[in-house]
Amino acid sequence: xxxxxxxxxxxxxxxxxxxxxxxxxxxxxxxxxxxxxxxxxxxxxxxxxxxxxxxxxxxxxxxxxxxxxxxxxxxxxx
Length: 78
Prior knowledge:
This protein is mainly alpha-helical and about 80 residues long. It has one domain: Non-ribosomal Peptide Synthetase Peptidyl Carrier Protein, Chain A (Orthogonal Bundle). Helix content is about 55%, strand content about 0%. It is built from 4 helices and no strands. The longest helix is centred in the middle third of the chain and has 15 residues, at about 40-50.
C-alpha cells in the first residue's frame, strides 16, 4: 500500500486510527491534531512499513511538523 495522493493518506489515518480527516490539510501541524503524539507516530510508521514492505526514514518522520511533510516522506521513492 502506497498512499500516493494525500486524500488516500488521510483515508488511511481514518481507517486505521479513527482520525477524522475533516479540516486536515497538508499544512496542518501535527501538534494540533487531537491524540497525535510520539506513540501514534510510531504506530503509524510500523503500519506503513509493514504495508509498504520497506523501511521509512524514521528520523525525518519524527522531525516532520506537518501532515504534508509526513505524507512526502511516506511517498518518497527510494
